[in-house]
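Morning!

This is the sequence you dropped in the shared folder:
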Amino acid sequence: MTALPVYRWRLAPDGLATRRQLRAAGLRPGGQDVAAQLERPRRRRGPLVAYLYLVERALPVRPMTPARRVALAKAKAARRWCPACRADAGYVIPASLGMCVPCHDLPEQRAA
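The structure's back. Tokens below.
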């Protein structure tokens, strides 16, 4: 097993890109292994790390099919429904609360 090349922030050579950079260009890693590592130093903690992929081996993003679009819409809608009052909250329910804010603020809900 060989070690990955490590580049400092903003000093990576051309031909390498992060996942976000690939996505912005309409590409995806496509199963390839990480080619290099990018490190951004921080003062009191360890460096921020980003993995780099070869742009030449990246594949185009898969197109959104109608079935995937419907499934994504259902998944997003499920995150908006409160399990306590069974109503659409109008926003994504915070995972830390587990229910909409009005239901969480009711004293009888907190006691249960």
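Headline: The longest helix spans residues 66-78.

More detail when I'm at my desk.
O.
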